[in-house]
C-alpha cells in the first residue's frame, strides 16, 4: 500500500463538524463590517515580492524570515501573501478607489502564509477577516474599526475571557524623538546580544518582550503615550472618548507594539486569556503614510486583521457551541423497486424549495438508512416504500420524538417547506 499524504507541516484541514464552528466564526467576524458600509474585496493570493518588502517593512520578522517567496516561470519574484493589508491597498490604489468617495472602506477574508515555527494557534497558513479604510484621519474611524472587532468577538460570538489592548505609537513628528529617548535608555541596560540587536532594528519592540527578567529591566522605560506630540495626544484621547461612548471596554497598553512596521498612532490587539502563548486573536491600527509608501496620495488609513483560526480556538476554550447551523432538515429513504426515481425527484424538489435534504444512498437496509438519517442530524426522515408508492403517500418520521405520520406524496414538499423555511 502507498503511504497516505499528509497536510504540509503547519497546516491543517477544516473538516466537518469543526468546519461549522469555522464558518460561524467567519460569519460573525464579517458581520459588523457589512453593517458598517464596508464593501467586499478579493485580491490575489500572491503579489510582487517588492510590495510586501516596501509595504510591511524589511525589518519585520514577517518579511525577513517568514515569507514564501519564489520565482515564477517568467522570472518574476512573487510571494504568497503573509498578511492582507499590503495587497488590499495595492488593489484599492490600482483600481483608483482613492479617487472616489472617501473614506474608501473594504473588508476581506482569506488565507495568509507565514513560514513560522508551528505550535498551537500558530500555523503556516492562517485565515483572517480583515478591513481596510483609506482616506480619513478622523478618530471616529479608529473607533469604528475597534468597535467592529470588539462587537464581533464579545457580542456576536459571546467571548468573555477577552481583553482589548489599545495604544498610540505616535507619528512621524513625535516617534523619532521618543525612539531616541528609548534607545538612550536601552543602551544603559544589560541586555543579551539578540535583544540588543532587536533594539537597533526597532527599539519599541523590546518593550513588548514577554520575558519577566527583561520586563523587570524595563519598569522605568520611557513610554510612547507619555511622549506624544499634541496632535497625536488629541487624536488618542478622542479615540478613547468615542470608545467610551460606544461602550467598548478596553485597557490602555503603553507597551503594546505590533509586529508590522506600518502602524502610527492608534494600535490595538484583542487578547484571549485561554490560549497560552498565541493569545492575540486579532489586531490592527492606523497606518497614515502607508498609502504614500505604496505610491498613492498622502491620505491616512486604518484597518484590522482578525484571526479565524485562533478565534475558533478561543470559542472552543470557552465551550461556546456554534455547531448546528448547517444540519439537514429532511433525510429521504427509498425502499424497494421503483421507489428510487420518485425519491430522487422529491429530494430535488425539497432542495429547490430551500429545505436542506439528504438521501440514503446505495439502497441499503432500512436499519442502515435510519442510522444515516440520525447521523445527518435531520429532523425528519421521509420513507418511501413500495406500499406508500402504490398509494401515492410517504411516511414522515420525526427523528426527535420517533412519531410517525403518513402524508400524501404530492403535499409533503409544501408541508416541509412551511415547516423548515
Ligand atoms: P497580524 O497581527 O499580523 O496583523 O495578524 C492578525 C491576526 O492574524 C493575529 O492577531 C492572529 O490572530 C492571526 N495570525 C497571524 N499570524 C498567525 C499564524 N501564524 N497562525 C495563526 N493565526 C495567525 C495583520 O496581519 C495586519 N495586516 C492587520 C491589519 C489590517 N492592520 C491594519 N489592517
Could you characterize what this model shows?
The chain is of the alpha+beta class and 421 residues long. The protein folds into 2 domains: 18-174 and 228-317, Bira Bifunctional Protein, Domain 2 (BirA Bifunctional Protein, domain 2), CATH 3.30.930.10; 330-420, Anticodon-binding domain (Rossmann fold, 3-Layer(aba) Sandwich). Helices cover 38% and strands 21% of the residues. It contains 16 helices and 16 strands. It has helices at 18-35, 49-56, 61-65, 85-94, 139-156, 175-187, 193-201, 203-207, 212-217, 230-246, 290-293, 308-317, 340-352, 366-376, 386-390, 412-420, and strands spanning 39-40, 46-48, 69-71, 77-80, 104-113, 125-134, 162-168, 251-252, 264-272, 280-286, 301-307, 330-334, 357-359, 380-384, 393-398, 404-408. An 8-stranded mixed β-sheet has the order 1-5-6-11-10-9-7-8, sandwiched between helices. Strands 13-12-14-15-16 form a 5-stranded mixed β-sheet, sandwiched between helices. The longest helix is centred in the first third of the chain and has 18 residues, at 18-35. The radius of gyration is 27 Å and the shape is elongated. The chain binds histidyl-adenosine monophosphate.
Amino acid at each position: 500500500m502507498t503511504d497516505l499524504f499528509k497536510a504540509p507541516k503547519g497546516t491543517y484541514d477544516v473538516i466537518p463538524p469543526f468546519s461549522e464552528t469555522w464558518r460561524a466564526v467567519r460569519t460573525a467576524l464579517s458581520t459588523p463590517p457589512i453593517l458598517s458600509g464596508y464593501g467586499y474585496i478579493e485580491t490575489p493570493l500572491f503579489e510582487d515580492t517588492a510590495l510586501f518588502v516596501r509595504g510591511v517593512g524589511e525589518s519585520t520578522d514577517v518579511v525577513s524570515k517568514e515569507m514564501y517567496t519564489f520565482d515564477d516561470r517568467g522570472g518574476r519574484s512573487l510571494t504568497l501573501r503573509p498578511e492582507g493589508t499590503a495587497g488590499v491597498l495595492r488593489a484599492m490604489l490600482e483600481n483608483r478607489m482613492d479617487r472616489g468617495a472617501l473614506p474608501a472602506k473594504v473588508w476581506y477574508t482569506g488565507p495568509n502564509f507565514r513560514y513560522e515555527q508551528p505550535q498551537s494557534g500558530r500555523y503556516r497558513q492562517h485565515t483572517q477577516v480583515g478591513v481596510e479604510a483609506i482616506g480619513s484621519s478622523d478618530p471616529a474611524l479608529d473607533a469604528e474599526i475597534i468597535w467592529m472587532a470588539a462587537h464581533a468577538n464579545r457580542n456576536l460570538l459571546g467571548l468573555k475571557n477577552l481583553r482589548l489592548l489599545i495604544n498610540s505609537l505616535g507619528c512621524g513628528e513625535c516617534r523619532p524623538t521618543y525612539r531616541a529617548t528609548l534607545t538612550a535608555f536601552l543602551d544603559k541596560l544589560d541586555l543579551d546580544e539578540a535583544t540588543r540587536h532587536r533594539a537597533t532594528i526597532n527599539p519599541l519592540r523590546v518593550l513588548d518582550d514577554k520575558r519577566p527578567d527583561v520586563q523587570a529591566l524595563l519598569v522605568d522605560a520611557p513610554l510612547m503615550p507619555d511622549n506624544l506630540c499634541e496632535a497625536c495626544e488629541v487624536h488618542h484621547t478622542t479615540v478613547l472618548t468615542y470608545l467610551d461612548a460606544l461602550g467598548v471596554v478596553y485597557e490602555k497598553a503603553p507597551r503594546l507594539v505590533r509586529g508590522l512596521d506600518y502602524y502610527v498612532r492608534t494600535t490595538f490587539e484583542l487578547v484571549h486569556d485561554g490560549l497560552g502563548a498565541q493569545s492575540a486573536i486579532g489586531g490592527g491600527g492606523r497606518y497614515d503614510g502607508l498609502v504614500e509608501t505604496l505610491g498613492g496620495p498622502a491620505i491616512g488609513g486604518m484597518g484590522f486583521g482578525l484571526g479565524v483560526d485562533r478565534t475558533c480556538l478561543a470559542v472552543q476554550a470557552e465551550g461556546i457551541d456554534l455547531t448546528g447551523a448547517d444540519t439537514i432538515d429532511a433525510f429521504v429513504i427509498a425502499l424497494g423497486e421503483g421507489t428510487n426515481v420518485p425519491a430522487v425527484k422529491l429530494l430535488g424538489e425539497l432542495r429547490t424549495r430551500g429545505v436542506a435534504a439528504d438521501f440514503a444512498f446505495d439502497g441499503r437496509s432500512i436499519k442502515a438508512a435510519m442510522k444515516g438519517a440520525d447521523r445527518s442530524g435531520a429532523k425528519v426522515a421521509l420513507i418511501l416504500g413500495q406500499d406508500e408508492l402504490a398509494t401515492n403517500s410517504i411516511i414522515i418520521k420525526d427523528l426527535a420524538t420517533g412519531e410517525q405520520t403518513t402524508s400524501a406524496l404530492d403535499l409533503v414538499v409544501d408541508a416541509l417547506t412551511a415547516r423548515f423555511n
